[in-house]
Amino acid sequence: MPELPEVEALADHLRRHATGLTIGRIDVAALSVLKTFDPPPTALHGLQVTGANRWGKFLGLEVGDLHLITHLSRAGWLRWSDKLSPLPLKPGKGPIALRVHLGIPGEAPGFDLTEAGTQKRLAVYLVDDPAKVPGIAALGPDALSLNREALCEVLKGNSGRIKTVMTDQKVIAGIGNAYSDEILHVARLSPFATAGKLTDPQLDALHDAMITVLTDAVTRSVGQQAATLKGEKRSGMRVHARTGLPCPVCGDTVREVSFVDKSFQYCATCQTGGKVLADRRMSKLLK
């Protein structure tokens, strides 16, 4: 799933390549991705792109007084092309859900919003105010906007596990499964630590790690072509998606805890005092 650094990089790419261009046509191949219907996508035809923004993991294109906003969810992506095909999209065929032509179709650049897999969760909204998107209206403070005191405040009294709390967009916006693994590893915190019971030194370490990891990832991602962002994200990971490989800090084996539809990775030596966390999926298999 694209998280804060990748979405910020996509927003930067759109600012640099789409701003000033005119929307020639929008093709919708999957009506299910449209979560708003008034105004329709055709309302953007002939209007000029004036900018691009990010709200947590939401990506938005400014077009006049309107905002074309998408949440890429787990398997969605933005695919840029310097010259899009003018042929209409075939509904239900292939991964392309929506196509934006920035100029005369067949003669101009643009982008596709795509989604792989069978679970279709890609969402597109066309609104005159980003706050009209329910997910944006419910967002907590952006992860990179939080100072140490603000982080303490959002975690205060929270009885949830820090891994779960950090990825709750209503608490902190922008962090998902991958970067929460990385942040907790750098902070040397157990994913199962209680969020509201972190000590002052632990809070210091968590805040420092959050800002460092995300800032570094944004720096590495911004300026990359959209097609290379996924590879850039993977190459910078220390523990996430590295199950069975050595921890780059201590050399211990990176371990995994699996759930029904997701998993997370951690280093027992660096984060849990050597304790191996229970893997629910494996526990059920062994019964």
From TrEMBL:
PANTHER family cross-referenced by the UniProt entry: FORMAMIDOPYRIMIDINE-DNA GLYCOSYLASE
Lineage, broadest ranks: Bacteria, Bacillati, Actinomycetota, Actinomycetes, Mycobacteriales
Example of a GO biological process term: base-excision repair
Keywords of the record: DNA damage, DNA repair, DNA-binding, Glycosidase, Hydrolase, Lyase, Metal-binding, Multifunctional enzyme, Zinc, Zinc-finger
Domain FPG-type: 238-272
Matches recorded under PROSITE patterns: FPG_CAT (PS51068), ZF_FPG_2 (PS51066)
Cofactor section: Zn(2+)
Species of the source: Mycolicibacterium arabiense
Family: Belongs to the FPG family.
Catalytic activity: Hydrolysis of DNA containing ring-opened 7-methylguanine residues, releasing 2,6-diamino-4-hydroxy-5-(N-methyl)formamidopyrimidine
Protein name from the UniProt record: Formamidopyrimidine-DNA glycosylase
Domain Formamidopyrimidine-DNA glycosylase catalytic: 2-107
InterPro entries linked: FPG_cat, FPG_N, H2TH_FPG, Ribosomal_uS13-like_H2TH, Znf_DNA_glyclase/AP_lyase, Znf_FPG/IleRS
Key word Secreted present: no
